[in-house]
Amino acid sequence: MLGTPVRKFIFIVVLTLVATFVSLPQSFSLFGKEINRSDININIGKTSIQRDFKIHLGLDLAGGSQLVFEADMSKVPTEKRADALTGVRNIIENRVNMFGLSESTVRTSNFEGKDRIIVELPGVGDTQTAISLIGKTAQLSFAEVEEMPSVGSATPAATLVPTDLTGADLESAQVVFESNTGSPAVSIQFTEDGGKKFTEITGRNVGRQLPIILDDQIISAPTVQEQITGRDAQISGSFTIEQAKELAIQLNAGALPVPIQLIEEKTVEATLGALSVRESVLAGVVGLLMVGLFMILSYGKLGLIADIGLFVFSVISLALYKLIPITLTLPGIAGFMLSIGMAVDSNILIFERFKEEKLKRNIPDALEVSFGKAWDSIRDANAATVITSLVLMNPLDWTFLQSSGPVRGFAITLLMGVIISLFTGIYVSRNLLRLFVKEKKK
Fold first, then answer.
1. What's the DSSP call for residue 26?
2. How confident is the model at residue 439 (pLDDT cuts 50, 70, 90)?
3. Predicted confidence band of residue 401 (pLDDT cuts 50, 70, 90)
4. What is the mean pLDDT of the chain?
5. Which CATH class, in words, describes the domain spanning 4-23+269-441?
6. Which of 141, 236, 349, 361 sits CB 3.0–4.6 Å from 185 for a disulfide?
7. Distances (CA, A) of 275 to 27, 336, 384
8. Nearest to 319 by CA among 11, 62, 17
9. CA 117 to CA 75: how far, in whole Å?
């Protein structure tokens, strides 16, 4: 049976090989054979996992366009503005995805009291069609299903007939839970005129579906169980909480049409992005070589093991950038570059402590004591960096913390670098040194 150090060594080798494979280009040659990898596509029940092996480049690296829209919130009640802006952002994101613009990002921003939506379209130069598509106000409507006899077939054809019930007649939508089953549902409330229209429509569509259409896409098609009178109704079905929330946001986006106006359009040339990528890759290679050379010159064979840990750190980082995926920007590359130096910090602290401890006790014990005594310093230094990264990321979108896309890109890669460096510095290097020291004693 394999000993614990050997099992851990095998795990490290397997993890490194897998990460290296993912980090390689989509197509590469191995022993003279051309290898083209297919994307990950796993379907387990209702769960679908789809990932590719491409590096997702941001606007500053891939080139493209950035569009900044300003939302007119003057007609939206203060307490509903956050939901309205979220709904509009989701609608724009859906429109961008339907338009086929890959690796785009859509985010909200508040600047000097003005609500803005920032759309980044990597690889897109001519944005006029995208602007006309994105800039429309969300259009919500209800339709009736009309069955028409099909010529030459026993199966009737169904067509959608728009009604005069639209998003303007809808006051609000929110997630509720059914009293009998506890299942998530969506409660909707109409205006007074909307309630009258809804009563008439449900009266003539009992037993039929009543499709709800947003931007020419059916977002729900509930079946009318009975005529509904009044201003309140409920959409129930096999919803998860996430699906119910998404439907409520979509309905509110149509119920609260927020006009948006393009206030800024910026184009980044692709040649600038390509040049930045080349220079960044060169800087990364030079940085890795310099750090590796320093470790070998300073600590000899121990430094060589630290360099192996640095290689593991690099391939794991790149693999995670592809699999999560992380949209890589110039500030993001800067965060990765900074984490390269930090990746060997723990090794330096341990090795310096080891120089002192090996004078007092045998080498295996000195190594374990060095790891134990250096851990407090390693923990505190990395905890401070983690906290700083989280502040820069502002994951909860706190208004008193101003954060932009480039700053978040830097913070995300720095945070990932710190976490991965802790793993490679403490787990990988430590277990390699344990195995190495035992072999030296024999």
1. S
2. very low
3. confident
4. 80
5. mainly alpha
6. 236
7. 22, 18, 34
8. 17
9. 18
